[in-house]
Each structure stands twice: as structure tokens, then as C-alpha cells.
Amino acid sequence: MKIILLGYMGSGKSTLAKALASALHLPFTDLDDYIMDKEKKSIKEIFESKGEIYFRLQESKYLKELLDNNNNAVLALGGGTPCYANNMELIKKEAVSFYLKGSIATISQRLRSEKQQRPLIASLNDEQLTEFVAKHLFERRNFYEQADETISIDQKSTDELLQEMLVMIKKDYSK
Ligand code: S3P
Fold it and tell me: Domains plus CATH for the chain?
């Protein structure tokens, strides 16, 4: 089984996917890290030197690469991954997907302190950031909501989320 965590920037996909992989004794891959490894550049540098369209093409190519085998794994996607090309279709076909859903307030507050490496929001002030998140989440929610499961992240710790996911996986997705 492949387990995919998706959701907006700052929703904690990588942290939770790592904890989940370790609890389930499965390998963990973060798609952004995989892209950086393959391209030998940071996400910020890829956006700056080649532009977003190039990044989206590579993102889709590497997602296919990661889904195109029978290995069990936990994967954390980038915030935009489900929203481009036929990525969400592939995700639904090849994996069990979990949408980590945060409110506009939760997400914008978390992103305030960690926007530097994120090219889409790096130049925004706090007020612009909240506005951007609200608009962007609205545009993306149709993609995110196609995930098999939706988990609310507001006011929950990583450990609480991990326990919640483990219960769901054991109940509904274990053979
Ligand atoms: C993006 C999210 C980022 C990264 C890139 C674009 C997006 O991943 O893939 O900066 O479009 O939301 P994280 O969600 O891991 O920050």
C-alpha cells in the first residue's frame, strides 16, 4: 500500500508522513526533497531559474516515478501537487490519500514563520499572506477534497494526528 499525505503548504505533511512511516515501518519520501535531489537545486532555485511551469512538469514526472512501482511507502506531496496535470487522478488510482485540512487562520499563522523557502509566498507581508492563503485554498479545495480521507489539523499535535491516522488505517485500510 502507498499512503499519500496532501494539503496546503504548512499543513504539516512532511512531519506527519515521517512519523507515520516510522510507526508503520515503511519507507518515507517527501516529493519536494526528491525533486531537489534529482534536479540538484532547491525548490526556490528551480522556480527562480526555470519558472513555475517547468517546476510543475518536473513535479508531475517525479510523482509518476514514485507511484510507478509496487513498493509500499508513505509519501508527502508538495502543496500544489494534486492541482496540476492528471496528478490527482493518479494519486487516487495508486494510493490511499489523506488531506490534512487546516483553517485559513491555522495555515497562515504557521506559514508566517516559514515562508522564506517557499517561492509562492516569500515576498508577502502578514496581511497579504492571509489574503493569499484564503484565495488559494478556495481554488485548490476541489482537488484536495478528492482525497480518500480528510483530517482536520486545527489545534492538534503531530502525535494526536498520528494516532488518528493509525486508527483509520488499521480500521479501513489493512487487509
Ligand atoms: C507549493 C508547495 C511547496 C513546494 C512549492 C510549491 C505549492 O511544498 O512544492 O514551493 O504550490 O503549494 P510544501 O507544501 O511542502 O511547502
Answer: 2-102+141-155 (3.40.50.300)
